[in-house]
Amino acid sequence: MNRDKITGVILAGGLARRMGHIDKGLLQFRGRSMITHVIDRLGPQVDFLILNANQNRPVYEKMGYPVIADAVDNFAGPLAGLHAALSACNTSLLVSAPCDSPFLPDDLVARLHAGLDEAQAQIAVPLSGGWRQLVFALCRREVLDSLTRYLDGGGHKVESWYATLKVIEVPFPNQANFANINTLEELERLEST
């Protein structure tokens, strides 16, 4: 089956406020940096991989992938990372995943792509455990202009921007695949499971 090429971006550009401002992507989890777990899961599902990071750039660059920083000031959240990645990618599709979700599904991209095509949507997001997993998104590069206008207008909430687009929810049965690690307590608990 012929398909569009897909760029993946791992979002590691946040401030990790709930983690005491520790760079979550570089935090050790089960003997390796958290972002390494995400690279191992997302990398095989995409044609190209880039990392979005706003600090510790030399450390991320040693991982062997292009590293891009937000172009939007003031750590504007995941949309700023998505904006930077959409601006940098050369493919018609981009999938995003946060650096703090080491269990993401091995079929994430394939299932989101099927849903995106079937619905002729602009963005596909997983629906798991009754929750839209908004930062895991497969989007068409054409949404860049819309996102740029939204950010330029002071917007920063993912849900509010999505409301302006055609978004399809793709069911994923295993909610544990989307567990993210936001606190040191969560890290400790998941370390031992």
Supply database-style keywords.
8-stranded mixed sheet; Spore Coat Polysaccharide Biosynthesis Protein SpsA, Chain A; alpha/beta; 193 residues; 31% helix; globular; 7 helices
Describe the fold and architecture.
By secondary structure, the protein is an alpha/beta fold. It has one domain (6-191): Spore Coat Polysaccharide Biosynthesis Protein SpsA, Chain A (Alpha-Beta Complex). It contains 7 helices and 10 strands. The strands form 2 sheets. Strands 1, 4, 5, 6, 7, 8, 9 and 10 form an 8-stranded mixed β-sheet that branches. A two-stranded antiparallel sheet has the order 2-3. Strand 4, helix 2 (57-61) and strand 5 (67-68) form a beta-alpha-beta unit. Helix 3 (78-88) packs across helix 5 (144-152). It is globular, with a radius of gyration of 16 Å. The termini are far apart. 39% of the residues are buried. The model has no long low-confidence stretch (mean pLDDT 90).
Give the arrangement of secondary structure elements:
Elements: E1 6-12, E2 28-29, E3 32-33, H1 34-42, E4 48-53, H2 57-61, E5 67-68, H3 78-88, E6 93-98, H4 108-119, E7 123-128, E8 131-132, E9 137-140, H5 144-152, H6 158-162, E10 167-171, H7 184-191
Parallel strand pairs: 1-4, 1-6, 4-5, 7-10
Antiparallel strand pairs: 2-3, 6-9, 7-8, 7-9
Helix pairs in contact: 3-5
